UniProtKB/TrEMBL annotation:
It comes from Chlorobaculum limnaeum. This is Acyl carrier protein. InterPro entries: ACP-like_sf.
Length: 80
């Protein structure tokens, strides 16, 4: 499974949303499912899945799927 697929799966499971809305344009607080509580669930899931510990600034900056990829790349998670 690619990192792109792993990331999408985490968003689907953490937010409880269908796969068709998880794309680079999906942003924090633009859907009811991505609220502050779901955001922390998402962060925890990302940390576990990719075996990283995100900085507080990165957690706050995690504002979209696209931004999640950018942040994960800082932790040497590669997206092709």
């Amino acid at each position: 499974m690619s990192n792109e697929e792993r990331l999408k799966k985490i968003f689907i499971k953490s937010l409880g949303v269908p796969s068709d809305i998880v794309n680079d344009q999906l942003q924090y607080n633009t859907i009811p499912e991505w609220d502050s509580i779901a955001h922390m669930v998402l962060v925890a899931a990302l940390e576990i899945e990719f075996n990283i510990m995100m900085d507080t600034d990165d957690i706050i900056d995690l504002s979209s799927v696209k931004k999640a990829k950018e942040i994960l790349q800082k932790y040497e998670v590669i997206f092709s």
